[in-house]
Protein: Myosin motor domain-containing protein
Amino acid sequence: MADAPYMFCIKHYAGVVRYHIDGFIDKNNNVASPQFHELIAGSTRSLLNMSCMSKTPPGSVSEMFTHQMKGLVVELDSTRSNFIRCIKPNAAMDARVFDHRSVLDQLRCSGTIQACKVLQVGLPTRVSYEELVFIYSDLLGASFMERFHGRDRLFTQALCHVLDFPSDAFRLGDTRLFFKTGSTRDVPNYRKIHLLDTVLAVTTPCPPATLQARLISYLAKSRWISAVTKTVVLRACDELFWSCRQGRCVVVLQCWFRQHLAKRVVAKRRTTVRLSRKWNLLLQKTQVRAAFDRSVQDKLELLSVLLRHQTLPPHAKWLLTWLGPMQRAMYVRKLGRAACMAYLAKRAFMALLNKVRRERAAVRLQTQRDVARLTLEANEFDLVKACLVEKVASLESLVSSWPLKQAAFDVTCSDFAMQVTALTSEVAAKDAEVIDMGRRLEIVQAQLDSSVDAQHELDKHVHRLQDENTTWMQRSTALELQMADLDNMLALSKARYATLVVETDARRDSFATQVDAVETNL
Structure:
């Protein structure tokens, strides 16, 4: 299509609808909302107020559409609902051209086909009850129509029955009478036309007197059927009520009898359970007594265990009643034991008092002996003090000469460190020579690869270099061993130095302790 760039399509439920964009915005343009005009009108600026007061606010497109739809609804309500569907035969509006596809799309999109299907299966022809009552009021008289006052549906039903209209050809609604479309095998089309003619008062179906008699007969018959139906329903409800009441009474009697039987069974079972409990308790007591009657010691242990508990369960209290005499015997024994313990405690106290007295006498004798010993020890202390003074003088001389010995030892350690440094430099030089030899060996290997003719001479040279390398490696190993010996000598020297320091500290501490003891004794 040539105008395809200026169109857009919307797919509805009934088909696709095409819209042109030319003038689409102008047709569907919506003006400013009333809230905007109210905001402008409420402004404090005089210019804005003047612009709003000088013009009346125009309505929007949606508001105009709403007013038009309301007017259309009012107009439709005031007239009969007869619609004429307009179909364009072609887009060019040419009377000589009929576009079948366009017409079919219009019928499908407008829902005409679906409406025809609904009318075909439904009840399209309808007549209101008020029209029938209005038409037949003139024919039958107002006094006769008083019988059906406020019951237009009943009058319509009676009229259809009197005219022998088949029940499957019409339906009674809330306010209208509906007829089916077309004709069937049982309902000819002329019957419906006859009834419509009667409704429109074109022809009279029968004389008014006959029609009144038939309507009165139908009304009496319907009333009689209603009364009979109510009577039958009332009797059925009465029978149902009495049957339900009898059923409830039977259920109450059954429940009472079953309750009586259940009470008897429960009482019997409770008696059986109570007797079985008493029998089991008696059997348990007999077994316990038989088990403890042979050994008195077991009875005593059981009684002691029971007495440890402050409270006992009800089923164990009979044990205290059974062991009551033994409990009293234990109480008497406990009192005798307490008296015996008091007598023994008194004897032990007297023995302890005698022992304390003897120990005090021994302590006095020991004190006298210690005084004599202290006198002798004081004399010995004077001699020991003189000896200690001599030893202190010798230790002071030793302490004064100790820094010289330590300086000599430090010089020796520095000499050892210099020797270690020299040996380390020699080892580094040997390592450099070994690296140089390796480089030479690599050069020789490269020359061996490049010259095949001088291979034998190079092999000899390589062997000689390898021997030299082995010699240097042996010398390097000897130097490493020599360096390890020097490290061991250094470690021994450090250990000896540490030992001398510890011994000196120990002698100094012991000497200080002796001096403190002497000062304390003095």
